[in-house]
Every structure is written in C-alpha cells, then in structure tokens.
Amino acid sequence: MEGVLGTTMEVQVVTENASPADQVHERVLAEIDRLEAVFSVFRPDSELNRWQRGEIRDGLSPELMEVLTACDGWMKWSSGALNPAVESLTRLWRDAEQANALPEDDDIQKMRALVSKPLWDLEGTPTLKTELPISLNALAKGYIVDKSCQVLTEVLGVSAGLINIGGDIRHFGSSPTRVSIQDPFTTVDNATPVASVLINGEGICTSGPSRRGFLIAGQRFSHIIDPRTGYPTERTASASVIAPSAMEADALATIFCVLTPQKSLALADTLPDVRCLLFTDDGAQYANARWLQTSNT
C-alpha cells in the first residue's frame, strides 16, 4: 500500500477469526492517522506542532508523553547522538546545498550549541525550553508501527503478523519470520539481500545515508548529522537493529549511524535482546554476537 506516512506499508496477518483484509487495513490506517495527528511535523494541527507553538498548556496526550520520555532516555543513553532538535543543523546543511557552498564552521558551532541545550522539562506540566523546531521522527514511526500491531491483536484478535512501514518492521505472534537486509550500496530494485535474520515478536529497522545526502561543491555528504559536532556522519553506511519494539529499533538505528561501529557494538551489547548489523563506507561489516547467532550474515 502506497502513501502511508509518506511511504509504503505492508501488512501480513494470521488470524483464527478470519477478519476481512479490508477490516485489517481499515483498523491499521485509522490508528496510523490517529497517531500521525500527534507526531507529524508536516501537519500544522498536530499535537506536537501545537505544543511547540505554545497552544497546549494543560498537559499532553499519553502517546506524546510516552515518546518524549523515551526520547529523553535515548538522548542520555547515547550521550547526545540522538537529538530531536538536530533538524536545525540539517537545515543549515540543506541551505548550504542550495547555495552550493559549505557552511561556515562558526555558523555550525553556534547552532550546535543551541541544539545541545535542554529541550524540554517533562516534570509536572510538560514545557518546552527551546525555540528550535523539534522532530520525534527517530522514534515516532517505530512507535506507530508498534501501536498498529497492538490494535490488530487487541481489537481484531489477530494472533500473528507483521507490519512494515517504510522499512520499520514489527513482528508479533509466536511463529518467527525471516527478514532480508538490503544491500546499502546499490539502488537496484530486487537486488540480492546481503543478509537475512529471524525475528520473533520483535522490531527491526535499518537506517543509513547511502541513498540520500547533500551534494555541495562536488562533495557528497551524509544526510545524517551528528548533533554533537554539527557535521554529517562519515563512516557508517547503514545500521540494522533488532530490538523488542520497533520504536527501540528505530532509535538505535539512528544512534548507531552517528556513532563509530565499535562504540555501537559495545553499546548494543549492554542492552538485552538487541542485535545489530552495521556496514561502513568501505564495505566492511560489523555485527554483535547476538546478531551472528540468528542470521546468515
């Protein structure tokens, strides 16, 4: 299915109740639309945008609070490698691409200093502490996938299945399924996967700069900006992460595209039930032990 959160969606289900396919899609799309109204950075009337404009003063929805709280945790855990205000740095590089001239380091450092300041306070009534635009996209799509799966199981009684929205995947049920990892160095459709891995009630997400980026004065740069430095990341071509939820996998894939492979693997091994596969620009592969135990990489 096309045009879901600006990308494609695939839904696979196994159910004893024989829920019609159109009912399954209707329920999933309704949940996606409900949550898009919370997290969208493109819809002026989304809860996130209204909060940033100061139009919400009496508390936030449980969904927005849950993702903001999770984002807080990942920011601290990654020492700032994940930062929802990084869009301001991205815009700086996007403007540089339009001008076809590298941004000045002074401008980068000024913006980096603003990005690194506290963004919000969630104690009591949640309040913003920054005027920079924030985006929860590094977690929100995975969260929406997780919640859509929850609707299928709790509302329609679906016993097993999988939802894939633009590469953010969540499997649920007791029967494992195998997921392929695409080659980050090719744009050819239906290219031979570089790996496949079993998932069972888990989320998987792949992030990477290889097919997008900035072209400035003849140089190509990653579209992923390291919020700690203000500069595009240089080494990691893609990061595939399996975690207990799609939201966790989404956040970790973003973080691991910013960190060095060695740091990413070390951090992955501090988390139970997290597996990761990384590719660097020179084609080298890095995987933690848990990944190697369950894949054909």
Q: Keyphrases for this structure?
A:
two-stranded antiparallel sheet; globular; seven-stranded antiparallel β-sheet; 20% strand; T-fold; alpha+beta
Tell me what you see in this structure.
The protein has a single domain (9-15, 45-294), classed as ApbE-like domains (T-fold). 37% of the residues lie in helices and 20% in strands. It has 9 helices and 13 strands. The chain has helices at residues 21-39, 47-52, 62-77, 87-99, 105-115, 137-154, 246-258, 261-268, 289-294; strands spanning 9-14, 120-121, 127-128, 160-165, 168-172, 177-181, 195-199, 203-207, 214-216, 219-221, 236-243, 275-280, 285-287. The strands form 4 sheets. The protein has a 7-stranded antiparallel β-sheet with strand order 1-4-5-8-11-12-13. Helix 1 packs antiparallel against helix 6 and helix 6 (137-154) runs antiparallel to helix 7. The chain starts with 8 loop residues before the first strand and ends with a helix.
Task: Give the proportion of residues in helices.
Answer: 25-40%
Total helical segments? 9
Domain module count: 1
Note the run of SSEs as H and E.
EHHHHHEEHEEEEEEEEHHEEH
- Pick out the low-confidence regions: none
Percent strand equals 15-25%
CATH architecture descriptor: Roll
| Lateral strand order in the biggest sheet | 1-4-5-8-11-12-13
Distance between the termini: 29 Å
Q: Which fold name corresponds to the CATH topology?
A: T-fold
Structural class estimated from helices and strands? alpha+beta
Shape: globular
Write down the CATH class.
Alpha Beta
Q: Over all CA atoms, what is the radius of gyration? A: 19 Å
